[in-house]
Specification:
This protein is mainly alpha-helical. It contains 6 helices and 2 strands; from the N terminus they run αββααααα. It is globular and about 40 Å long.
Length: 128
């Protein structure tokens, strides 16, 4: 069902390029063309576009579950990762924060840490 919905939305999204075009809605959370456009432009086939939309849907579902289980990262965890990013790029944290799209970096760090916390939560009792 998810693949059919994604295919339907991708096929219509390819003819509309408005920034606020909704590509999919996941539990009342919209995925806009703007949020996936960079990834969609990098691929050529409809199957690859569907895969990108499916990945976006999966990420939203994981973020919602992490929020529901209160597994979101602390402000300190986010700052630590941002410091690491700044240092690896020979910048100070203030210089990194002055970038125009800093909020996108911070948002991505938040999402990645939330998903990592969710993965750790579900795999903490696994024995190898």
């Amino acid at each position: 069902m998810k693949k059919i919905l994604a295919f339907f939305l991708v096929s219509f999204a390819s003819c509309a390029y408005s920034g606020n075009t909704i590509v999919a809605i996941v539990n009342k959370t919209p995925i806009t063309l703007n949020s996936t456009q960079i990834n969609l432009l990098e691929v050529n086939t409809k199957d690859e576009q569907i895969l990108i939309i499916n990945n976006s849907i999966d990420n939203i579902l994981q973020l919602q579950k992490a929020t529901e289980l209160d597994l979101t990262p602390t402000k300190r965890n986010i700052e630590n990762v941002l410091n690491d990013i700044a240092q690896s790029n020979n910048l100070s944290l203030k210089e990194l924060m002055n970038f125009e799209d800093f909020y996108l970096i911070e948002k991505e760090v938040f999402e990645k840490l939330s998903i990592l916390n969710l993965q750790r939560f579900f795999t903490k009792d696994l024995m190898i």
